[in-house]
Amino acid sequence: MADNGPAGPDAGRRRWWTLLAVSAAQLLVVLDGTIVNIALPSAQHALDMSDASRQWAITAYALAFGGLLLIGGRVSGALGHRRTFVIGLSGFAAASALGGAAVNPEMLFGARALQGVFAAALAPAGLSLLTTTFTEARERGRAFGVFAAVGAAGSALGLVAGGLLTEYASWRWCLYINVPVALLAVLGTALVPRDTPIGRGGRLDVPGALLSAAGFAAVVYAFNEAEPLGWGAPKVLALLVGGVLLLAAFVAVEARAPHPLLPLRVLLHRARAGAFVSITLMFVAMFGFYLFMSYYTQTVLGYSPVQAGLTLIINALAALAGSTLIAGRLHGRVPPVALIVPGLLAAAAGMFVLTRLTAQSTDVLPLFLVPSLILTGLGLGCVMPPTASLATAGMRWHDIGAASAAYNASQQLGAALGTALLNTIAASATASHLASAGRPTPAEASVHGYTTALLVAFGILLAAACVAAPLTMARAARGPAEAPEKEREPVPRA
Questions:
Q1: Are 291 and 308 in contact (CB under 8 A)?
Q2: Are 233 and 80 in contact (CB under 8 A)?
Q3: Which CDD domains did the record assign (predicted)?
Q4: Where does the pLDDT of residue 225 fall: very low under 50, low under 70, confident under 90, or very high at 90 and above?
Q5: How far apart are the first and last CA of the chain?
Q6: Is 55 helix (H, G, I), strand (E, B) or coil?
Q7: What is the average per-residue pLDDT within 481-488?
Q8: CA 73/CA 399 separation, integer angstroms
Q9: Could you give the CA distance from residue 372 to residue 348 in angstroms, rounded to a whole number?
Q10: Of these four, 27, 171, 314, 341, which has the most CB atoms within 10 Å of its CB?
């Protein structure tokens, strides 16, 4: 079936309204992972936060979002994807307004947690709507290309927007800005085709919900705490071990549950597993890359926060080109592996360019930063559309929400792990270099730390390409990311 409602021009317009609304929501979810980072020093001063507590403005969002994603996917299927999408947008707007009006740290932290709660429903609902609305191969390619472009560019745009709003308006506008965007997206959903809730069985898998929320939250919190405390800290080790045990128990429960939160068939499909592995490792590398770009440009090159953010616009534009002009146009014409593996290798090449940097390097912007930003952006833009499509292609109707949630959870875990892991490696390499016999300057030690971590990111992306190739190659025999018709449930009415 190529359509999700009545045939003709009106149905086509309604499909593209779905894309606009879902893309706006995706921008909100991704932006809020980074936009507050730039505003945090100003918010800390205004609300009199302590240094020990300020991290909760970031961590509260990450924990709620990562911990509740699988539940959000299940709720989306049970209530209907469009209804869940509207609830998520409305709640996200309200939580953002509450955070912007915060009068003390606790109010800000609570609002950020609420943003994460509604984002956990919004993200899988949006991807599910896109999957069920665009089923024809060429249109599906364009739609997923635009969706991925927004996701790929969102983190970089968050840093730019955060810097501009904080410098020229107020840190509070880093939260208020979400309100008009969310409300416009809510208005756009009036033209989004309706879907039908699952309407079967329907009881929530409570043990699975509790185990997944606790397990994901523990792992994400461990990654966040590893950055300041180190991976050997007892608190970090306890959180990691506890999180892994909880997730193992979650898998055991899901294997036996009559209506599981995350059916294991979602993860055990070979090509879909390749998509999850690819996007997780891509986010591990890219979020470390964004962190070091911010540090290097500001601490070594002396850029202002706004200048550092604007430098990342190059990466955002390259991601836009990769996802729309390359991946979007080639979707359905080439197998997913022909986009995923070259994308991972292009991003790896971009990381490798920066490993050649030294504190004495000249013409850094044209010779190092621009090539690296272009290659990593193109790579990310080529990887996101086919992995998003593979993650949800061929799913039975009642499993689409779970698959969408698992895809978003992969991104969230990759981002949290990448920031913590690569920052720890950089800090250790910097300290070791400072203690070496050559008496390096602080700038030389910092650059050595950054390049060491980026060399690890380069290796991670090469490993991702090696793992993804055989997994996603299986899909090539069947052609584009579409499932056999017999696997599908009837597409809901308009």
A1: no
A2: no
A3: MFS_MMR_MDR_like
A4: confident
A5: 13
A6: coil
A7: 39
A8: 9
A9: 9
A10: 171
pLDDT at 474: 56
pTM for the whole structure: 0.83
The residue written with tokens 């998520």 in the block is 88
pLDDT tens track for 308-349: 778 888 998 999 899 999 998 898 889 999 999 999 999 999
Query: Which residues make Cβ contacts (< 8 Å) with residue 306, sequence separation at least 6?
Result: 160, 163, 164, 167
Token code pair at residue 210: 């509790």
Per-residue confidence (pLDDT) for residue 485, from 0 to 100: 36
Q: What are phi and psi of 334, to 5 degrees?
A: -130, 155
CATH classification (class only), 10-194+261-487: mainly alpha
Helix orientation angle between 400-434 and 206-229, rounded to the nearest 10 degrees: 20
What is the gyration radius of the CA atoms in the chain, in angstroms? 22
Q: What are phi and psi of 331, to 5 degrees?
A: -60, 130
Please answer whether residues 126 and 22 qualify as being in contact, where contact means their C-beta atoms are separated by less than 8 angstroms. yes
Distance between CA atoms of residues 74 and 210, nearest Å: 13
Closest residue by Cα to residue 285 from 220, 370, 375, 367: 375
User: Which DSSP state fits 477?
Assistant: G
Predicted confidence at residue 7, as pLDDT, reads 47
For the chain, give the number of residues: 494
Nearest-angstrom CA–CA distance, 400 and 71? 13
Other CB atoms within 10 Å distance of the CB of residue 478: 13
